[in-house]
Design a protein that fits this description.
- The protein has 410 residues and is an all-alpha fold.
- It has 18 helices and no strands.
Length: 410
């Protein structure tokens, strides 16, 4: 990382760290639910279907939030929307600590999802427009490694808080900690600058961009292909992110401490996957990188969930599971930005990523309902492999965009 990072200007570095922090805090808030889900199942007597729905509803709402944020970011700026969305999702995560029923938590999770969907739409566009084409894949993909950092913080907090407090109280403490991203926004407000490319396009644009433009030729095909890739990549990703803690505790019967350790291996693989595949997307091209990561992710998760493995193998395989599932996601930010012109970039990028996220978000709920008639591991493996197959289909239809200059035409 150090070699290319030293080539960034001061503003590019500040933007990098602001977006990295936003993505990490986004992940922490989202994954707080995944690690407390087994406790909610036990304390509130939830079915796996209800638990999966709580995971899915935030992801579905994030699809709407991401598109809305993308549209707004094309009008008032990427940096401003990035800050607004972080404030939004952190506040509703904290409010979840005061829920007293399934229905209340369902509403709060829905509202939280609106914010965290918007954070990616604004942040990925901002990064893509600020960074030079030759470094774009590495920089944007490396920013997304912040997800693994945020997930790691959530897993660490889970291990500590659940050791110090009883489960009935610990899950509420975990959600209260979710207010921390709001504090981070207040700290970074002064240093985060708007994209010069956006400001230039705004000065030369006579009227606001039409929202429907991304659904009309020549951009319609682009929007459909990008959405398909996002659907597969995020469907597989969220299936594993949502259900792995529950799988380890309820199927593998691991303690809180051991679950945290196993998740730590998975998260380390995820962090490395973001960084390595970010570099590969610049070296091998966007299409080949998507294809390699999708094939290897499908193979690895099938072995992990469907094989008869002992504890040590499960522990070690957690690394490649995280490595490949995150490797797919790493390249999407730069690739989607390269597919759209500036005046609709955040709109197109936000819709494609979040439409895929919204549809792919059905996977965790489907796993929950399918596990009523088959083993949980089999359900996770089945829906994750199906998701990664969609990535391969989308990649076959995707144009290569590595090194492309971002377009500003009307």
């Amino acid at each position: 990382m150090q070699g290319w990072f030293t080539q960034l200007s001061g503003n590019e570095r500040r933007t990098f760290w602001a977006c990295f922090a936003g993505w990490a805090l986004d992940a922490m808030d989202v994954q707080l639910y995944a690690v407390v889900m087994p406790t909610l199942i036990a304390v509130w007597g939830l079915s796996k279907g209800q638990a999966g729905t709580l995971g899915t509803v935030a992801l579905v709402m994030s699809a709407f939030g991401g598109w809305i944020a993308g549209i707004v970011a094309d009008r008032i700026g990427r940096a401003r929307v990035l800050q607004i969305t972080i404030l939004w999702f952190s506040c509703f995560t904290a409010l979840s600590a005061f829920a007293t029923s399934y229905d209340q938590l369902l509403v709060l999770r829905s509202l939280q999802g609106l914010g965290f969907g918007g954070e990616w739409a604004a942040g990925a566009t901002l990064m893509s427009e600020v960074i030079s084409p030759k470094l774009r894949g590495r920089a944007v993909g490396s920013v997304q490694s912040g997800w693994a950092v945020g997930y790691g913080v959530a897993a660490l907090l889970f291990t500590i808080v659940f050791k110090l407090a009883p489960p009935e109280t610990a899950w509420r403490i975990m959600f209260l900690i979710g207010v921390l991203p709001a504090v981070a926004v207040l700290i970074m407000r002064g240093s985060l600058k708007e994209s010069p490319l956006f400001e230039s396009a705004t000065r030369h644009r006579a009227a606001p961009a039409r929202i429907r433009e991304i659904f009309e030729p020549p951009l319609l095909r682009t929007t459909l292909v990008a959405s398909l890739i996002a659907m597969g990549a995020l469907g597989g990703n969220y299936t594993i992110l949502t259900w792995l803690p529950t799988y380890l505790s309820s199927v593998r019967h691991l303690s809180v401490l051991n679950t945290g350790g196993y998740l730590g291996v998975n998260i380390a693989g995820s962090f490395c996957g973001y960084l390595i595949f970010a570099h590969l997307s610049d070296w091998l091209g966007r299409r080949l990188t998507f294809a390699i990561s999708a094939v290897l992710a499908a193979i690895t998760v099938a072995i992990y969930m469907l094989g008869n493995l002992d504890g040590l193998i499960v522990l070690l395989l957690g690394f490649p599971i995280g490595f490949f599932q995150s490797g797919i996601v790493s390249g999407m930010g730069a690739t989607f930005a390269e597919l759209y012109p500036t005046h609709v970039r955040s709109n197109g990028q936000g819709f494609s990523y979040n439409a895929g996220r919204g549809i792919g978000a059905a996977m965790p709920a489907l796993v929950g309902f399918a596990s009523a008639s088959m083993p949980l591991g089999s359900a996770i493996g089945l829906f994750a492999v199906a998701s990664y197959t969609l990535v391969l289909v989308g990649t076959a239809l995707l144009p290569e965009t590595r090194g492309r200059e971002l377009l500003s035409y009307e």
